[in-house]
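Components:
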Amino acid sequence: MPEPPRHNLPAEPNRFVGRERDLDDLRGLLGETRVVTLCGVGGIGKTRLALRVAAGLLPRFSEGVWLVELARVGRAELVVPEIARVLRIRGEANRPLLDTVTARLRDLRCLLVLDNCEHLVDTCAEVAAALVASCPRVSVLATSREPLRIASELIWRVPPLDLPDADSADAESVQLFLDRAAAAGTRLGPDSLPDVVRLCRALDGLPLALELAAARTSLLSPGQIADRIDDRFSLLTTGGRTAPARQRTLLAAVDWSYDLLSAKEQVMLRRLSVFAGSFDLDLAEQICAERPLAPEEVVDLLGGLVDKSLVLCDESRTHYWLLETIKRYAVERLQLAGELEVLRERHLRVLCELQARHFATEMVEPGVPWHERLRALTSSRSLLDDQRVALDWAAESGNVPLGLRLCATSTGLLPIGGLTEIVTWIERLLSLDLSRVPAEQIAHVKAYLAYGLEARDELSRSLEVAEESLAGMSPATVFSRCVMLNIIVAVLLRMGRADEALRYAEESLAVATRTGDAWNQAAGLAGLSAVALTRGRLREAQRHGEEALARAREHGHRWIMARAAAQLGAVAEARGDLVAAEAQYAMAVPWLRELGGDADLARCLARSGRVAAMLHEFGAARERLAASLALSREAGQRQGVARCLAGLSVLAEHEGDLEGAVLAAAAAAALRESIGQHSATIRIEELLGRARAKLGESRTMSLWSRGRAMSPDDAARHVLEGERSAAGTPVAAEPVRHSLLTAREQEIAGLLTRGLSNRAIAEELVISPATVARHIANIMEKLGYTSRAQIAVWAAEHSANPSA
Amino acid sequence: MDERIVIVDSGTGLTLTEEQLDERSAVAIVQLRRRGVRVGDTVLICLPVGPDLLVAADAVIAVGGVAWPVPADLDACVLQERIQASGARVLISDLPQALEAAEESRVRIVMSVADLHSYPNSRELSTQSDRIVPSASGG
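Structure:
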């Protein structure tokens, strides 16, 4: 199916000027070079060039061009999770995230743009090397002040823009300056051209310096700016003589621009450096508006900084951000002003408060309409980068109580990074000095640690942590206490200990009923239904399930509603009422879509597809299983893929394709074994029994071993597309190479068979030896050979039949 | 095959036959092209006098470029001036002083001698970063 190119490249904020040849060369290079690193000082335009190159490569990298902005990633261990987040890949239990990522990218033709690697250059190098080694069609375009220094890397040094020369003023740097000045509302006539030329030279063609200067043309003429920058430059050279000239020029320009700001604008700019990524006006007000800035001033100050090109924003002015180079400068200024600690602390505190409100709105408060709950969840998710920065600060500064508070309320953090990220953060914070932390708070946050561990399939550790949590938690924190109880229920059920689960579910229900907490009533009732189901008490299970759904609807959160509906679906399946089961699953699907939780959605779609297959609704079954498979594949979830294969096996069997059923079941079993998971052996045995009866022992066994050897994708395609033919795509025929060569090249290839040197060939054909060398290089490239001797052998073999 | 010797390295006494020279030039041309060198482009060559210099110059000319040799033993400042004056996009050199002098120039890509020699089979390109392992495919 032809899809539009997939990418996450941002819209360009203004016109891209110059660098035509560079763009062309770089796009050419990325055709054959796996890793290209754009190197150069800050402000030279690495990011912008990379984005422009990448945008031009969209047609060539049909399966995706993905920008990973590493500037917002503070720690090496978050590089892979950030890449996974961008690619929408989730971690799998018991597997390093990088393995899941490389497995997902193995057959994809895609380009990863790793922007701003310099502060994490070692990790970026390792990751890039791993990707290139295991994913033959993936290329990496990195930007960094320092090269990655890996074997497959081509280091490409980004130069400044071309400078005007004596003859012509039509240079890239001049064009950029004029373009940005015009954007700032200044029309510069031909009279000012000599000054513009002088300024561009003074700024060494550095794009960021030119933009900062152009933003000031409404007040100062290019001549005045040039004079002042010259002064500034002479000041600077006395200070840091060791820094490279370009870096000094850039610093001079940024310094100059900063000094021209009003005192309040300066305060504002340096405070804005605490944000991880983009921010909105609201957040800027909450964090930056402290003496001497009043909240009502923030919007004007921000606008002023945008006019001066120091802050960037989107067209609607909802998101603001700082260029990495400016941000670093601003951080230094913040530090010099002695405000860094204060601002970081404030950033952490504000996020804590914000997140506490979001958490209450999304989960706890009764009677909140769903769209408001969803808005709170969405806000929480959009603040993830800032939450990470804040947590990092909490750990670094030893402010464990605030850090733990953030962990206990960040619903956005839970499903990200393969559900393991919350575990990492909590474990890191708990490893610090806890003497100032109330025991109760530790118990509270352990509930979320247990939640993360359960999602990572570390059941016994999860249970252990949950029990510790329960023992230490105050009865006053009722909501989290109930959440904890329900996590224990889930873990015990998964461990096959339903009897023990019962009392936790009952306790949760009792407490939640007393406090009017609809979420936990629903969760407790769903737990009771699951316990009853394992004990074969179907009517009780149904009653609890229905009650759970009613409480869940009262709460309105789509996740808990879907959870209750899925429970009812399971009960109906156990009863043999497939129609009711399908209806329950079908109801949950749109809820989960709204929520944007792909893991739950994939599971629900797979169940719903399997039930549809049993009801002989083959079209619907195929559609849902295919959708589920796509979700799991894209997120790199082998467990989910195995689930779909098992469902496809059911589909094939009900369609009367017993062979396809065996193949898909075998592929599912093999995949499950490879990830250390048990298969549902009863169904497989039954299926194999029916297959033996109908197809015979040897046919069945040969199908089973063929299915085990098949790739999951092939096995799935076999059922989904109804392919009855043997799997395995035919090997593409060797291209006819001879016709690739021009007549002259064929002639030279022929002469090589006679062992002639370039000089001899040149004499024979009356051309220059350089031309002969060029032709031979062409032949080598076209045929993929590495020596003249190979060409000679090839030519000898083909000379008998030139048209072959 | 033609065994005629065409160059002697005065330092090491190593020789290159005409066939070897042809072979190495062909590989070097491919490598230059892969890095975007086009007809009319200036390519800086800063190598000690010897076979590598000859191969590099040969290849640059064959690719249609303008060879711009810079003596390797120049004073750092002069070296920097010459490199900047060339306006070249590509520099062929292994010498630390040349790499340093190219730092603030318009040079986009630095190729090592190993880069000129190697002809990887796949899409893989080796670059200056793996020059510790000299390629054996040169002759």
